[in-house]
Amino acid sequence: MSMTMTRERRAARWLLSAPMLALLAALLVWPLALGVGTAFSRDRLSELAVTPAGFDNFATLVSTAKFWTSLAFTVAYALVVTTIELFLGFALALLFDREFPGKKLLFSLMLVPIMIAPSLLAVMFRLILNENIGLVPGILRAIGLHVAIFEQRSIFTTLVVLDVLEYTSFTFLLSYSVLQSLPKEVFESAAIDGSSGLQTLRRITIPMLRSSIFVIFLLRLLDSLRTFDLIYIMTGGGPGTSTQTVGIYIYKAAFIYGDFGLASAAAMALVLILVPLMPWIIRQFDLEGGRS
User: Fold this and answer.
1) Which residues have CB under 8 Å from 76's CB, separation 6+?
2) Is the peptide bond before 52 cis (omega within 30 degrees of 0)?
3) Is 132 exposed, middle or buried (0-12, 13-18, 19+ CB in 10 A)?
4) Residue 108, burial from CB neighbour count under 10 angstroms (0-12, 13-18, 19+)
5) Which three-class secondary structure state does DSSP give residue 275?
6) pLDDT digits (tens, 9 = 90+) for 74-98
7) Do the beta carbons of residue 277 and residue 204 sit within 8 Å?
8) 27-36, 85-94, 269-278 — which one is most confidently predicted on average?
9) If pLDDT is split at 50, 70 and 90, which confidence band does 40 have?
10) What is the pTM of this model?
11) Nearest CA-CA partner of 216 in 252, 266, 176, 156
12) Which residues contact 260 (CB under 8 A, 6 or more apart)?
């Protein structure tokens, strides 16, 4: 009787999950399979026929200096912005982890950047920083400063600052949520024992949040490695190709040069770079779940 019930439950689970599994296959599995097939094909706008290419696209990708340059820029950019955003987000979370006048209003304002579409925010930044009509260049000229925001020597700093303004709210929200989940009794005991705020932070808060901080760092890092809209709208990958990310390289390969096979191969290469991080992230989630 129990075996019959178990089989019926398993059948019911599969039956109830079938619509979601079908939707998942349509939205994820089929496009992924199509992309893999394209990566191993010679698929160009200049040629009518699509023919098998084996590993030719990957060989071309490996021998292309622009791909390695874009990959190096993407990794460097992602590490810099993620580190700064994690530090600022955690610091702001510590600041908001207490009661003070106007907290609710300021908290809502902190979340505004992640409520705006990244492409729209990038357009706003582009207008504000425009050398002819932009507010920021106008203010700088008024106080006697002449800063070429979009020149080679300053463009990386400009992009980092804009990314930090846009995504610090993401790390702040996650850090704040984790801080709120910590047991208050531990901090009350530390205060009774005469522990200072800095000692509590160094000896209690950070050790308890170490794995959560790493998870937040990796989540933001994975997202920043896929950066496209902000940089593409601001610079288009320029000057030259100095700010070209892997995402921009893939876009140009597909929609400017019409080589869909090469673009798919580059996308697969990026996925293969990111995949090794996923088991570690999942393991960290499991550790957090076990502690709670």
Assistant:
1) none
2) no
3) exposed
4) exposed
5) coil
6) 999 999 999 999 999 999 999 998 8
7) no
8) 85-94
9) very high
10) 0.85
11) 176
12) 38, 43, 44, 45, 254
SS3 67: helix
Nearest to 243 by CA among 255, 258, 228, 256: 228
Decide: helix, strand or coil at residue 42.
Answer: strand
pLDDT tens for 130-140 read 888 888 888 88
Q: Which amino acid is at 79?
A: L
CA distance 189 to 169: 31
Sign of CA dihedral 9, 11, 15, 20: positive
Pairing state between β 51-52 and 41-42: antiparallel
CB of 66 within 8 A of CB of 149?
A: no
For tokens 């463009």, name the residue. Answer: 155
Task: Give, in order, the Cα–Cα distances in Å from 32 to each of 45, 226, 237.
Answer: 21, 17, 26
Confidence of residue 285 (pLDDT cuts 50, 70, 90): low
Over 90: is that where the pLDDT of 222 sits? no
